[in-house]
Design a protein that fits this description.
single chain; 1428 residues; globular
Length: 1428
Amino acid sequence: MAAARGARRLLSTSSLWLCCLLLLGRREPGAAAARSGSPPQSPGASIRTFTPFYFLVEPVDTLSVRGSSVILNCSAYSEPSPKIEWKKDGTFLNLVSDDRRQLLPDGSLFISNVVHSKHNKPDEGYYQCVATVESLGTIVSRTAKLTVAGLPRFASQPEPSSAYAGNNAVLNCEVNADLVSFVRWEQNRQPLLLDDRVIKLPSGTLVISNVTEGDEGLYRCVVESGGPPKYSDEAELKVLPDPEVTSNLMFLKQPSSLVRVIGQSAVLPCVASGLPTPTIRWMKNEEALDTESSERLVLLAGGSLDISDVTEDDAGTYFCIADNGNETIEAQAELTVQAQPEFLKQPANIYAHESMDIVFECEVTGKPTPTVKWVKNGDMVIPSDYFKTVKEHNLQVLGLVKSDEGFYQCIAENDVGNTQAGAQLIILEHDVAIPTLPPTSLTSATTDHLAPATTGPLPSAPRDVVASLVSTRFIKLTWRTPASDPHGDNLTYSVFYTKEGIARERVENTSHPGDMQVTIQNLMPATVYIFRVMAQNKHGSGESSAPLRVETQPEVQLPGPAPNIRAYASSPTSIIVTWETPLSGNGEIQNYKLYYMEKGTDKEQDVDVASHSYTINGLKKYTEYSFRVVAYNKHGPGVSTQDVAVRTLSDVPSAAPQNLSVEVRNSKSIVIHWQPPPLATQNGQITGYKIRYRKASRKSDVTETLVTGTQLSQLIEGLDRGTEYNFRVAALTVNGTGPATDWLSAETFESDLDETRVPEVPSSLHVRPLVTSIVVSWTPPENQNIVVRGYAIGYGIGSPHAQTIKVDYKQRYYTIENLDPSSHYVITLKAFNNVGEGIPLYESAVTRPHTDTSEVDLFVINAPYTPVPDPTPMMPPVGVQASILSHDTIRITWADNSLPKHQKITDSRYYTVRWKTNIPANTKYKNANATTLNYLVTGLKPNTLYEFSVMVTKGRRSSTWSMTAHGTTFELVPTSPPKDVTVVSKEGKPRTIIVNWQPPSEANGKITGYIIYYSTDVNAEIHDWVIEPVVGNRLTHQIQELTLDTPYYFKIQARNSKGMGPMSEAVQFRTPKADSSDKMPNDQASGSAGKGSRLPDLGSDYKPPMSGSNSPHGSPTSPLDSNMLLVIIVSVGVITIVVVVIIAVFCTRRTTSHQKKKRAACKSVNGSHKYKGNSKDVKPPDLWIHHERLELKPIDKSPDPNPIMTDTPIPRNSQDITPVDNSMDSSIHQRRNSYRGHESEDSMSTLAGRRGMRPKMMMPFDSQPPQQSVRNTPSTDTMPASSSQTCCTDHQDPEGATSSSYLASSQEEDSGQSLPTAHVRPSHPLKSFAVPAIPPPGPPTYDPALPSTPLLSQQALNHHIHAVKTASIGTLGRSRPPMPVVVPSAPEVQETTRMLEDSESSSEPDELTKEMAHLEGLMKDLNAITTA
């Protein structure tokens, strides 16, 4: 379905030209589009109302058979009645001359005698209903798929089988999926009647339960799909008598995973056989299913499960369990539930004025997540500078013109289906007020237009409009009040502006009445803009000022990145960084700035360096740091290098292990537990621990034990009975042993106690009631030979079972808190061990009233008296702090005001730390005890907020819980891959696919991007896969220019601030085929040669026209014999070689001064590094692109010119300052002071960023021809454009050659424009690349660009094809036709420069003489061929 949907082409030739006109700016604002031609409205005319125009019935997916008739229903409502047309696979149907397809009166499409064969399928495809009202506009329906059942083919046929009476039998019959509904069964060549005992599964399989003798016979399945019936082989079913012995239990039919849409039914087959006869039961996600009481869950014959009216809650894993009393077997299957696209918010009708900005809102839901596209008057909306997709699905239209009126439709589509919703846009005259309050779809920049006007004098034109500040990307305008209102306190102003040569205006309004200045931002460097200002008062808008023509400043020339940056650790606390002089210095390098940052932090530090190396001291031990270098010249900071990461050397740990505790097991063994040292003090990988212990009486006799790995406990055996021992632990790294803990004591038991039975009853229980608490004290059981692990205290009003508290075996006192005054409590005490709880001891007590302050002791009857100390509560700990150490560790510290000032613990008090997270809300607290003023909490979840509190206990006295402290653990790299990866073809573009996915379930932080890997070889090394980065949390991406009819494999990695997660499993997708008669718009030439025209596709799919067929230009070609064709081909090749050699001779004979002039001319043609990411003047990208230096980086949320195009990373630019916020300038200087050149491609992904590490791939890129206004510098080079381009590209000196590779990348900051694209035509299953084409000189202005198209199709038909540069020095100066370039490794930048230099000096006269002699030989061969 996905491949077929990708083959749809929704744009006809007429609709394509209409979309082109939308992008070309509409030079006649008053003219309406062809389908939306609303009559112009005169001033003062009544406000037009929105016209109801919608579909009453839309076509639905239909299954038909060959030779039958089909009706695709469609009906639309409008006044006047609309004209109904139909599209099939994106092309309008000509129903006038069609004798099988006709339009019914209500608009439905009737197809009689459906035609379908192996090689001719004219009726199968995707149909769309188009409704048009000439005076109103056009709307399109949802797309419906017509499927014609193919010829019957049996995937499996019934086989002879036998079954015991009373058991189950299964006969398989699998046919094409679209023919299952046409399958029936015969027994002994008579139709078989189905009932509750004999059923047919959805796959066509026959299941007979409780087999009887009457079921014996010959069975076959029949497929009747309109033609003659097709029969399967006959199979005999034998019924055997019950042997009265058991037989093995086995599955005859197991469930298989299913995908169903909400509302459909699902049958999970499950049939078992065996003696005794088995029973079937079902479980879902380990919960038993009740099929008897459920209305939707039905158990079919044999045990299959039928789920009707599937919902999202039905998704999950189902287990079929067969049990016959002797044995049990089970099988499982996954049920996936999908949902069709649905609108959460539909577009709303909008009134607006010209020059305003509007937004059509559209929110959709579905599973898989739907993709959204926009249609205006039936034609696809192509993203441009003025039509943008914002907030994933909303359509933003900037600078409205009259021709933007019409009907806009939001079309949502996923694998399950598609749906549409539309709205109407009406543009009113400026003197007609918008009738309602400003809707949410109007942007804040245009809401000042909405105030209703009253009658009165209008202001005159503002005076003295000047550009007081002109920068590369913003202009500040100021003016004086109009002569009609010298004070102007109540006037507001609107500034209208547009690029020179573009008819579509934008508007910017002043913020407050009386303001007489506006800053227009997001402009392009070296571009001419036209400004005019209008004043408004309460009566309306006044006169416009005279147009002001202003040109933005060009970008300055800044240094390129410093090559060969390296970093290596010289000690545990120092790292040495070295680098070389930038190849494109663009002037003398004044100094360097070295930036470094600890991994996992956001604080970057810098140091100024005058040389090419620097040693950074005072770093943390065994810690990873990243480094980058920025060179400075007189213009400022240049392009930053890529990050290099290195870790300082390891050292011995600088802190002891934490939370050391001991547990006496018996009379001869003690268990020691500990936690690792704090992460920041480990100083390397912990390789083990050293345990030292000694008898307390013999401190000089110390025994050592080594524990390797990450073990955090150790059992010490062979100790003496009743002896006190001291223990301490130290951590180990490869460098040695760190400091040890303090000595901790424990005493072994005198004798081994009995733990084969529960403890006896405690010998006494004493209670002392207070107002809201009861102090409980006790003595241990009299029999001391039974192990007591602790005590359980139960209490409650009238019953001791309401609450239970467990305390340590050493404890003898406990205070029960938070009780009610004047209440009767029953208290129980039980000792317990690992066997269980002992006999309880009961007591009751009545808490005191609020007014009672006396102290009365209650004693247990017949129990010895035990004095009770003062139960005054302790002060809770204060100053609780949570220090985050890692993704799973937080250190908790606190202070105890009941301790002396030095905070040293000298008594037996201990602290209890508790913690929890609020996600999910019902999470329980976890507790741990500590004997110091800090505790290391481990085993936490990454990127999770925890709360902590502490209490102190001393004897039987405890404090309340302290104030809580909060801490969020650090992020961790994702530990699971992205989910639900799907690949579909893009509608109308078979070479383009759309990849969709869901975020990983264990993101462990905010996802900052994804990387898509794809290859035609699933077994290839991962560094050989092609990479597409996706910035941000987007879940869909387009990849263009793939090879037709080729299997591709796709994997996805998620990334957060900590790095890359695991890759998803490979997903296979085969691109669709394209017949020679079914050319896509991308593969056809349109228009005349020149800008915007395209060459025919000469890729792997190109086939020369046959005799008698039409040529690509539409003229018939005459028959040619093979000899003449060979002569023509050889002649063209020789002439091309001669021209290129002459050009090479001419260029190499240039003097040094001429070379400098040509470099200046090239810079002029290229805009002197003034190209902008949204400009259509694109510089030639670097010949070699090192992909491992590209990365993903969070970016500003600027409006995206393309609904699916990846956002453009904001460059590190300190030159483009804005006057709004000076602090921004300092932050840019501190961190983002670098420039980047363009690295982009037509796959709508921007391969840019600073931190991503990618496999190295080397490719020349195509460049897009200029499509905007540029300033031309006069050049002394009189050569043709193609020659000058070749010279400038191939014969620059080292500085010129390298400087052209680094354009000032602040050109990328203009978020309001589209990105440059590099276009390639693949001839390899992945991609091939051609040489960048340098834009030829042209007139000062150009028309707005058409939608971006591959470069090979953009050249004029009579232009020379640019040569491909390879890494071979011998062929560097020669020209060749475009061909794939396969290079095992990319040369460094300085190596490329060296090759260019060598090529300049390699064309000596002798070599040229040899070349000419060689050409003369070729000409002689050619003459010999032609005369033969």
